[in-house]
Design a protein that fits this description.
Layout (H helix, E strand, L loop, with lengths): L3 H23 L5 H22 L16 H19 L17 H20 L5 H4 L4 H21 L11
Helix pairs in contact: 2-4, 2-6, 3-4, 3-6
Length: 170
């Protein structure tokens, strides 16, 4: 065996590691608008994946009588997106809670969520980046709120003996 081979392999690994660290150092952290856009998109993608994945027969599932069902939580999340879209368009908006009774099927609930995501995303993307240097309202609050409900939906999945889409092997 050639004695230089392990040495060269070690040098190669060191060079690769240094190149990787250099590339990492060259990346800039996201700007506030990039961070908000990215977080909003990722969280909504995960919630929408769950909404599409869960069988319709389980949309009425509640782990306790005094909490929202899975479908009601999705409608509630859509209400938050609608609020954010309105504020993003400059409207003086209140959080108007949609009535889950108006959305009786999985198809209707998923369509509502998709539309709320589309509208809020369009509103968010239209906001100038400089806006986020002054305030993150209402986006940070809506993202945080949706994150809480995403965790709630994960718990619902687990309580039903199911694996949430994001936790499945890729």
């Amino acid at each position: 065996m050639n004695r230089t081979t392990p040495f060269l392999s070690c040098i190669g690994l060191m060079i690769a590691a240094c190149a990787s660290m250099f590339a990492q150092a060259q990346r800039q952290p996201p700007t506030p608008d990039q961070a908000i856009n990215g977080l909003f998109a990722d969280l909504n993608r995960r919630v929408l994946d769950m909404a599409k994945d869960l069988p319709e027969a389980k949309y009425s599932h509640k782990p306790a009588a005094d909490v929202r069902s899975f479908g009601e939580v999705i409608v509630h999340i859509a209400s938050g997106n609608i609020f954010a879209a309105k504020v993003g368009r400059g409207e003086n908006a209140n959080w108007d809670e949609l009535d889950p009774k108006d959305y009786k099927t999985k198809e209707a609930i998923v369509a509502l969520l998709e539309k709320s995501i589309t509208d809020a995303t369009a509103s968010l993307k239209a906001i100038p980046a400089a806006y986020f240097a002054k305030t993150l309202r209402p986006w940070l609050a809506v993202i945080e709120h949706e994150g809480e409900h995403y965790g709630q939906l994960v718990a619902y999945y687990r309580e039903m003996g199911l694996v949430p889409p994001e936790s499945r092997p890729k």
